[in-house]
Amino acid sequence: MNVNKRQKKFTVIIIQDERLLCSFKLPVNFFKICLVAVIGVIILFSATVLLHNKTNNSNKEELITRPETQHKPPETKNHENEISIAAVNSYNLSIEDFRSRFDLRRKLFHYSFLIRNKDAKNATASGYIFVILKSEGLGPDQWLPYPQTILTNGVPQNFKDGDPFSITKHKVITKDISTQHIYDSTLIFVFSNDGKRILEKNFSLKN
């Protein structure tokens, strides 16, 4: 059995100056729709305000973070290797006017050279010098070092075995080496007081 339900309605009466202007009826559903619409607008407005505040806070955090990053001090690097190289290069020495001859009768090798300190401030330079006689076809174990020392790959193993020197400007080094053979070339090593190889120079002994 079908039962027809009557839809509930509200009557709206508009009165001005005690006179009835108009009246009309509105269904209950109309008010429900209006209420839902108002609630929807409120929710949408609240969400918009919340999103706006969140965006502003994010921008503020970014502005705070950037200056901290920009003013962050640079990382400290390890300069030990640079200091070591600088220490070696602080010696400004040269070997000049090298002269030599073999005295076959006395079985001696005589040599002389000038070691010059080219430092502009004339700071005292000191260290150790080796003179090594060698020839083509001979291995380092057959070379003749002066002063006597052990060679490792052709380089003096103990720098303190060398001939010590100390100069401000320049100095002439003159020595005689006892030898049974004639060699092709001379290799000169100069070491600093702390064992750094600061100079290496080769001279031919061939006529």
Q: Helix tally? A: 2
**Integer tally of domains:** 2
CATH class assignment of the largest domain: Mainly Beta
**Cα distance, first to last residue?**
139 Å
CATH second-level architecture of the largest domain: Sandwich
Structural class: alpha+beta
Oligomer: single chain
Helical proportion, percent range: 25-40%
Which stretches are low in confidence, meaning pLDDT under 50 for 5 or more residues running? 71-89
Biggest sheet features = 5 strands, antiparallel
CATH topology of the largest domain: Immunoglobulin-like
> Could you spell the SSE succession in H and E letters?
EEHHEEEEEEEEEE
Layout: helices, strands, pairs:
Blueprint: E1 9-16, E2 19-27, H1 28-70, H2 80-89, E3 93-103, E4 108-117, E5 125-134, E6 144-146, E7 151-152, E8 155-156, E9 163-167, E10 170-178, E11 185-192, E12 197-204
Antiparallel strand pairs: 1-2, 3-4, 4-10, 5-6, 5-9, 5-11, 7-8, 11-12
Core attributes:
41% strand, five-stranded antiparallel sheet, Immunoglobulin-like, 207 residues, 2 helices, 2 domains, 12 strands, three-stranded antiparallel sheet, alpha+beta, 26% helix
